Amino acid sequence: MFNTTPWMQRLSMAASVAVASCMLVTATPVQAQSSYPNRPIKMIVPYAAGGFSDQASRVIAESMSKTLGQPVVIDIKAGGGGRIGAEAVTKLPPEGYDLLMTTNGTHTYIAVTEKNLSYDPISDFTPISLVGSYGLLMVVNNTLPVNNLQEFIQYARNNPGKLNYASAGVGTGPHLAGETFKHMTGVNMTHVPYKGAAPAVMALLAGEVQVAFVNIPPQTQHVKAGKIRPIAVMSAGRSALMPEVPTAIEQGLAGFISESWYGVALPAATPAAVRTRFAQAMFKAGADADRKARLIGAGIEPKLMTAQQLSDYIRAEETRLRPVLKALDLKVE
Prior knowledge:
Helix content is 45%, strand content 20%. By secondary structure, it is an alpha/beta fold.
């Protein structure tokens, strides 16, 4: 049996304290990660309550709450075409307790139309996944003597400058869809912006305009009642809500896709372990049959993407839209 001198005892005690300190420092991040999340999470929705963003966010928030074990609370911060809510997220601590319901509006439309945007849609966020998307619908007034896309294009070419098309406002998805259509087909139509989708559709029903680019779900009643005529769906595939309406691509307009999409993103500096946890929750929610059915019922096609796939998708959409915006003589960076 060994006898230790006082100085050896002190050295042994100091070493023990040092080892314990190192273990504490090493364990702290692991403990913090393993306990995440330990309080409610806030999902900021940058558009008004009751819209598609709000509907999609509530469906996904409910699913993620079950997986994460904490409530995911909806926080509406509407205004500025999505700018106010998106900007708010960039100023919050990147701890994984604040996320953004992203859309084309916050990440591509603003990027190509705003010269002095206060945030960078790519570098200031870490995308988690796509939630879903829906294609816009091209509809015409019943007085127009066309029944499909090729007939419409021919009629528009035979009557240059005589057609007006409605949108929900300058810089909105329907506006960019109309301008993309003109850019790709060479037809001459005049844009008439309205203060929202509902007034645009009312103008179409009243015959103030002949064409409109609209969101599908609210218009199914008008189409089924025969009040307006659907010409084409502008998504990659047919809509589950209007499977009888062919896409623009099917009707010969290759590459013409104009979709509204919804995704989830975190502030850029969010720790990798937290991002992974969110991604796992999103993909687990994606397998939920009830979630899929509720999104489809709202007119949204459920889709999931990895963070890298969503980043690439956003960049590709921005690249595709820039020539259209330049043709409109809008100032872009």
